Amino acid sequence: MAEMRRFPGPPDRLGESPRWNPDTGRIEWIDILDETESSSKSDGSDLVRKALPGEPAGFAYRATGGRVMSLHHGLALRDESGKTQQIPVPNFDVESEWFNDCAWIHGAVSGSAHWLSTFNLRSAHFIGLIRISRPIGWMRVL
Amino acid sequence: MIANGIGWSPDETILYFCDSRQGIFAYPYDIETGSIGPRRLFFSFAEADGHPDGLAIDVEGCVWVAMPGGGQILRLKPDGIIEQRVTTPTRWPTSVSFGGADLATLFVTTMKPLDGTAEGPYDGAVFAFEPGVSGVPMFRFGR
Questions:
Q1: A-interface mutation test, from B126, B127, B134, B136, most A Cβ less than 10 A away
Q2: Which residue of B has its CA nearest to A69?
Q3: Per-residue model confidence (pLDDT) at position A129
Q4: CB contact burial B78-101 (16+ within 10 A = b; e otherwise)
Q5: Does A13 sit within 8 Å of B124, measured CB to CB?
Q6: ipTM tops 0.85
């Protein structure tokens, strides 16, 4: 196994959700507490850091460009320019609920596609997943 | 309980779901319908190992999971047994993802301590290394 290499950029307070962007050949990640998104070349050079409009939790890439982001206060679509559009979430209580990591799967044969985000309640012993399955819509699965 | 990383097995039949307080659960997953079956505890951890957080899946079906507090990344075989431990330069790795050429590099995010303990020199840095196996590509939303 090769040696672990440290990126030269400034440290995050709470780095999370690293994602490889195959279109740009860059690694991207978020800092939850500093509310930023960062990207760099695979060796850590050419760091770009941008502010986000809210506390991020995770993101997944969109086929049409940009990404869908799970925020602690909801979900949003964010394009490459940084324009962010909130996604209405039925029955979502911003005071007591928050999203966390997220991912998307697309069946290679069936064409079925599902988006999942881990999901928390702030004050209860509850964990869960929430799913978008077109055209079914939202469904809490756990 | 803290819901955290998620991922699918390479054959898309198992959904892995990390609860940082209890461990990683595995669910039978129906890619046609998106429905899940009864969960089983795939991996439970010792407190000294840290708590599981973000995860990634490799082409051999093993789960790589960051263990904040334990200063390590674990590679778990499909039966949930620890196959490999990779020590990180910080106690606080938070998540992992494959990338780079052929998805052969594992990228690691980390954080500064939130528990009042002293900050280490590499807390919050991003790391990368070649684990010797490639990752499963991540899917794109709305493809």
A1: B126
A2: B141
A3: 54
A4: bebeeebebebbbbbbbbbbbbbe
A5: yes
A6: yes
